[in-house]
Specification:
Distance between the termini: 67 Å
Order of helices and strands: HHHHHHHHEHHHEHEEHH
Largest sheet: 4 strands, mixed
Strand order of the largest sheet: 1-2-4-3
Helix content: 55-70%
Number of strands: 4
Structural class: alpha+beta
Number of domains: 2
Radius of gyration: 27 Å
């Protein structure tokens, strides 16, 4: 059944193509190595695993050794594999730690065994279906009464900008911030189709290079936009592209907020929008800070 898809057999080759694509491996954050300057639980688990293996006298099976070696390499190579490292190596770590505890002084090992017996007694006394049922009923009640709700943070996602798009129905090809693409698909598909979204590995090097050329305002960015027939842009307000478009006479902003700014090209297709929103400007960060200081005073 795995062959029943738009790509047929090629879908099975996709993981190999992605992992062998140096452009993606070197630029997509989840494929880069973990940042050990941050407080990652992964690095502490890895160090604890190394220390436990050094202290333990238990002989690991060939499968355990293979898992430790392979998953350690994979997680150090790519942050995407950290969760797999934690899931697969946790049982091995527990087995090693149990052997170490067995060789500790009798007073400690006896306390530890008694604690385990108490925990098992508590577990066996609980009704297995009670608390899951109570949790489901409680969450359902909170949702239906409106006490809890789901919504996107409008300081991170282009919530208001997409509301504007849904009202105005802008025609033509869009060039969008890839960080906005996922939300646009969720909130405005099929009315709008994105240029790129967060699934960078799906787009490959060709679109990835063109996206970065435009987003970073690299040489040839205007020609690349013409290549794709881009008629309007929605991008991060603080981005280099927004600053560059602001200075272009053939582009005009029709919407702007601290998160996202929308530009359209000065052509007949957008004449009504340009006339309707001719007053919209894109304030710089300095201008917004200045306004904030004046209002505070």
């Amino acid at each position: 059944m795995c062959f029943v898809n738009p790509y047929g057999f090629n879908i099975l080759l996709f993981p190999i193509r992605v992992t062998s694509d140096r452009f993606i491996m070197d630029r997509v954050i989840e494929f880069l190595s973990p940042n050990f300057h941050e407080a990652l639980p992964f690095k502490y688990m890895l160090l604890f695993l190394i220390g436990a293996l050094a202290l333990s006298r238990a002989a690991l099976s060939f499968a355990d050794v293979a898992c430790v070696t392979l998953l350690s390499y994979m997680s150090l190579y790519s942050a995407r594999h950290v969760s797999l490292f934690a899931v697969i190596l946790a049982p091995i770590l527990l087995k090693v730690v149990s052997e170490i505890i067995a060789r500790t002084p009798e007073s400690f090992s006896a306390w530890y065994m008694n604690r385990n017996l108490y925990m098992r007694a508590i577990d066996s006394s609980l009704r297995p279906y009670l608390w899951p049922t109570v949790s489901i009923v409680l969450v359902t009640a909170l949702v239906t009464t409106g006490l809890i709700s789901f919504q996107f943070d409008n300081k991170k996602f282009p919530v208001k900008a997409v509301e504007f798009l849904r009202r105005e129905k802008i025609p033509g090809n869009v060039f969008n911030d890839d960080e906005f693409g996922d939300y646009m698909i969720y909130a405005a598909w099929p009315m709008y189709r994105v240029f790129m979204d967060g699934r960078s590995d799906m787009y490959g090097e060709r679109y990835g290079r063109d996206y970065l050329r435009i987003a970073n305002v690299e040489p040839g960015w205007k020609q690349t936009m013409e290549k794709y027939g881009v008629g309007w842009v929605i991008f991060n307000t603080e981005s280099p592209l927004t600053a560059a478009l602001k200075e272009q006479p053939d582009w005009q902003s029709i919407y702007s907020d601290p998160v996202a700014t929308i530009f359209v090209k000065n052509k007949s297709e957008y004449r009504e929008l340009l006339a309707k929103y001719s007053f919209v400007s894109v304030p710089t960060r300095y201008e917004r800070l200045k306004v904030g200081d004046e209002s505070a005073n």
